[in-house]
Amino acid sequence: MKTFWMFPGQGNQFPGMLRDVSPKLIAKVKDLTGFDLPDDEEAYQDPVQIQLALLVLQLNDVSLLKEAGETPDIVGGHSLGIFAAAVCSGVLSEDDAIKLVLKRATLMKNAYPEGYGMGVIVGLTRIEVENLTEKVNSKQTPVFTSNQNAELQVSLSGSYEGIDQVLELAKKQSARTAKRLAVPSPSHSPLMKAAAQELERYVEGLNLQDANCVYLTNFNGHAVTKAEEIAYDLSHNLMYPVYWDTMAEVALELGTEVSVELEPGQTFTKLMKQKTSDIQNISLATMSIDDVSFLLNKWKRGFSNG
Q1: I want to staple 258 with a disulfide (CB 3.0 to 4.6 A). Which of 31, 37, 234, 280 is the partner?
Q2: Residue 6, φ and ψ in degrees, nearest 5
Q3: Per-residue pLDDT at 137 exceeds 70
Q4: Does the annotation mark 79 as catalytic?
Q5: Quick one: CA dihedral 116, 100, 76, 54, positive or negative?
Q6: Of residues 79, 159, 187, 235, which has the active-site annotation?
Q7: Predicted local distance difference test score (pLDDT) of residue 182
Q8: Rounded Cα distance, 87 and 21, in Å
Q9: Considering the entire predicted model, what is its pTM?
Q10: Buried b / exposed e across 270-282, counting CB within 10 Å, b at 16+?
Q11: How far apart are CA 103 and CA 32, in angstroms?
Q12: In 3-state terms, the chain is what percent helix, strand and coil (to 5)?
């Protein structure tokens, strides 16, 4: 039975999401970064706090799943999610992932401390969204077409002024949804090129290993295992759109039978359900580790008997 573990990025963070995380893991973050992770509303206005907290939450999920005897065949992270995916697949150590995310989040915060972020449009094609961004994008109102999460779900990155103008145009064009996201930086756009280049230099100094399972890259959706290919994704995904729709298609082509979405939220479980009804789906946001392990073992027996 092939499993695809999905690691979400920013957007679904919420106060209290770290309540069940191992105190030892929280202490490790404090030791390595100096951050306390207060896990409250005020903290989640800060890109550094958001990214460290989400990483820790997912590292805790990975640890609990592996303690229960579960391992993935395929991993895919969305934006920030790639770092926990890299730990899960044996590419990065926990310590290096924590320090790397601190570096990434700090670069992002310093590059655009305010007035920049992301939005999402549902109901228009990528070409339609690109036509809208071209009408608005300028030096005064930079905005770019960004992540492709589904065929008709496209993100925007840039200045809030530019994003808001594109969102209004999208509403006039009958988009089902057109709103800002809770992401306080213009991730996955050319605006992050300098930050990506600096992050690349940092990644070069880390000891990365080849993956022990298939790793799906953000910037083109390809299935890879080599450390150097994953290193490029870890450093450069800041400046490229995340092609999640392609990643999901590749996961299905590779024979995925069960998707497992780590915390927080159920965004990618819902997207997988929209894409196909031929696989089983698990979301840790709604299930205990014991229940997840029970289902996975039940389905494994079913697949082997079948």
Answers
A1: 280
A2: -110, 130
A3: yes
A4: yes
A5: negative
A6: 79
A7: 84
A8: 17
A9: 0.93
A10: ebbeebeeebbbb
A11: 12
A12: 50, 15, 35
Q: Rounded distance, CA 59 to CA 57, Å? A: 6
Residue of 63, 78, 146, 188 marked active site? 188
Which pair of tokens denotes residue 256? 């995925």
User: What are the distances in angstroms from CA 194 to CA 41, 190, 235?
Assistant: 30, 9, 11
Minimal CA–CA distance to 63: which of 300, 296, 297, 289? 289
154-166 confidence digits (pLDDT tens): 999 999 999 999 9
- CA triplet 292, 70, 85: central angle to 5 degrees? 100
Q: Report how far residue 40's alpha carbon sits from residue 37's, in angstroms, rounded to the nearest whole number.
A: 8
Active site residue 288: no
| Structure tokens belonging to residue 259 | 């998707």
Residue type, 106: T
pLDDT band, residue 306 (cuts 50/70/90)? low
Instruction: Tell me, rounded to whole angstroms, the distance of Cα 174 from its chain centroid.
Output: 28
At 82, give phi and psi (nearest 5°). -65, -25
Are 212 and 244 spatial neighbours (Cβ–Cβ below 8 Å)?
no
What token pair was written down for 234? Answer: 């870890």
